[in-house]
Amino acid sequence: MAEAKNYFIHATAAERYARGRPDLHPAIVRRICEVTGRSRFFAVLDVGCGTGLSTRAVARVTDRVVGIDSSPEMLGQATGGPGIVYQQAQAESLPFADRSFDLINVGLAFHWFTPDAFLGEARRVLQDDGWLVIYNSGFLGQLHGEDDFAQWHRDVYLARYPTPPRSQASVTDELVRPFGFKLVQKETHDQDIPMSSDQFVGYLQTQSNVIAVVEQGSERLEDVAQFLIQGVAPFFGGQPRILKWQSHIDFLRVCG
User: Fold this and answer.
1) In contact, 65 and 59? CB cutoff 8 Å
2) In a structure prediction context, what are the per-residue pLDDT tens digits for the chain, which is 256 residues long?
3) Best label site of 191, 203, 210, 224, fewest CB within 10 Å?
């Protein structure tokens, strides 16, 4: 697979990401503890940490977490806390010693990696009883009480701003076993997130399909924002609404 383009190397995109992303990570971290049977971890590596939402969430269950991302602009927007360290690095070339971590967390980032290279590195830096958790969370294009919204999202928004190319590799036992992992469990979780129209427009401007056209000069951010504001306004009616997100979580364990 050709190397995925990095859409998050622009300072303005990182700023929008830090402001506009809903924090879905704490619920997933709670589920990680439940599935692994561990209330705390020795050391955690958060790969593709972006602006640090996932890093701060997993920091609650460890004394030491390292968040890495390939984009210095995203890391520049990351806020810290006790036991948190941020570092610029590639998922496919982890600058850590063998067996340094007992949990690797990958939230909303695996589709930007070269899977084989990352999995090999993940196994190398994990302890022999370690866990690798990969998850992706996305907006389902549904707004409670507004059936017509799904059509606008699909036929207007995504038609104008299609999703850019990314890895299509899914996490399967066949994919991960050659690298010393066992796929223990796959789960899907829904979350309902209340948002105002302004918050939702801010979120849409963090998506890679919008970042791709704005940062590459195809459209001005002001024009995109105006298009989105006008498009979503009829569905919100000036009031916060409930939007549906869904997370797919893969729990992998080192199998020797």
Assistant:
1) yes
2) 344 556 666 688 889 989 999 999 999 999 999 999 999 999 999 999 999 999 999 999 999 999 999 999 999 999 999 999 999 999 999 999 999 999 999 999 999 999 999 999 999 999 999 999 999 999 999 999 899 999 999 999 999 999 887 777 899 999 999 999 999 999 999 999 999 999 999 999 999 899 889 878 899 999 999 999 999 999 999 999 999 999 999 999 999 6
3) 191
Listing DSSP states for 187-228 in one string gives EEEEEEEEE-HHHHHHHHTTSHHHHHHHHTTSS-HHHHHHHH
Beta pairing class for 126-143 and 241-254: antiparallel
Task: Count other C-beta atoms under 10 Å from residue 249's C-beta.
Answer: 20
**What are the residue boundaries of the structural domains of the chain, listed by start?**
11-146+167-195+245-254
How far is the C-alpha of 129 from the C-alpha of 65, rounded, in Å? 18
Instruction: For residue 137, list its beta bridge partners.
Output: 247
Distance of alpha carbon 77 from the chain centroid: 15
Cβ–Cβ under 8 Å, residues 247 and 137: yes
197 — phi, psi (to 5°)? -65, -40
Full-model pTM:
0.94
CA distance 93 to 73: 19
